[in-house]
Task: inverse folding
């Protein structure tokens, strides 16, 4: 425990409570989920890059979404797994803590922007199919991805800077498995009410701001699908959006649960569970959501596997 009015130069992550046996079970579970997440998203990236049938805006965005998912989960999960193997608390320097928080928030912001762009892409595909290739050309897609990355990393500079300008004098122990902003604010002896409110407004801006085009796009998409006369046509149109819509519900649900709240310093268990959803569960589900019901991707996957088997035989 730090003395009053001294500032922390390193933190100790408390990680997960419980016995060594529980830690071993958690390690095995999270290691499995993390491994599947990395391999599944890497598979998506490789197949999207090598198969010419998947050279379309939807799969271009999906490839970049998979890159973001790998990076987001890799920011914190390896450190969390290492902490589950070691007894006691895990030390992390102030610099490493700020870098982890910045990368986590920046990559998450970029992902939300990209998800919103993918919703607009689905709107154009369903509602303006004849103009799709003109509107969603390669130049537009590249700029959308660049803007999502640049915006995410620029937008989170001030929130992270403001967080680490506070004086952490109450303790240097974070009741979490990562450098969580809510737990950091708990350790501050400064009056952080204004900072928390500004951070809340910024979270609302980015989450709701990217959710609005998604809601508008799907309102038009559903309206267009309902006007299609044939049942097969409606199913085909809906199938092009079903995966993205499922991911939107899961992704935005967890983000709203975790960030859009005026009080950032709530119970540690609340933050821990919500962070696990963002860092472990959602990236793990991504490869399954976007591939299991996608006939074109499954066909491309089979062809790639056949080609690899032939190379191994030769």
Result:
């Amino acid at each position: 425990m730090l003395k009053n009015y001294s500032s922390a130069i390193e933190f100790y992550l408390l990680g997960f409570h419980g016995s060594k046996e529980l830690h071993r079970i958690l390690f095995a579970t999270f290691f499995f989920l993390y491994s599947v997440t990395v391999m599944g998203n890497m598979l998506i990236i490789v197949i999207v890059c090598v198969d010419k049938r998947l050279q379309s805006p939807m799969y271009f965005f999906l490839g970049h979404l998979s890159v973001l998912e790998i990076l987001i989960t890799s920011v914190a999960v390896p450190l969390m797994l290492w902490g589950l193997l070691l007894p006691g608390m895990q030390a992390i320097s102030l610099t490493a803590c700020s870098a982890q928080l910045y990368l986590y928030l920046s990559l998450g912001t970029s992902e939300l922007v990209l998800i919103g762009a993918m919703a607009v892409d689905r709107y154009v595909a369903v509602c303006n199919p004849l103009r799709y290739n003109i509107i969603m050309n390669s130049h537009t897609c590249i700029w959308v991805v660049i803007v999502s990355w640049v915006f995410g990393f620029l937008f989170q500079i001030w929130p992270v800077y403001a967080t680490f300008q506070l004086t952490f004098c109450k303790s240097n122990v974070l009741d979490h498995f990562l450098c969580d902003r809510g737990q950091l604010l708990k350790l501050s002896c400064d009056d952080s009410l204004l900072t928390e409110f500004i951070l809340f407004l910024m979270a609302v801006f980015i989450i709701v701001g990217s959710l609005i085009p998604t809601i508008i796009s799907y309102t038009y998409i559903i309206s267009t699908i309902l006007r299609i006369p044939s049942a097969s046509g409606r199913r085909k149109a809906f199938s092009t959006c079903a995966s993205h819509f499922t991911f939107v519900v899961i992704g935005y649900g967890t983000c709203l649960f975790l960030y859009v709240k005026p009080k950032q310093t709530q119970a540690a268990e609340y933050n821990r569970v919500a962070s696990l959803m963002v860092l472990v569960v959602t990236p793990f589900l991504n490869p399954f959501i976007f591939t299991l019901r996608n006939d074109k991707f499954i066909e491309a996957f089979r062809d790639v596997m056949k080609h690899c088997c032939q190379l191994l035989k030769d």
Q: What stands out?
A: The first helix runs from residue 20 to 50. The chain is about 75% helix and 5% strand. The CA atoms of residues 58 and 118 lie 7 Å apart. The two ends are 63 Å apart (CA to CA).
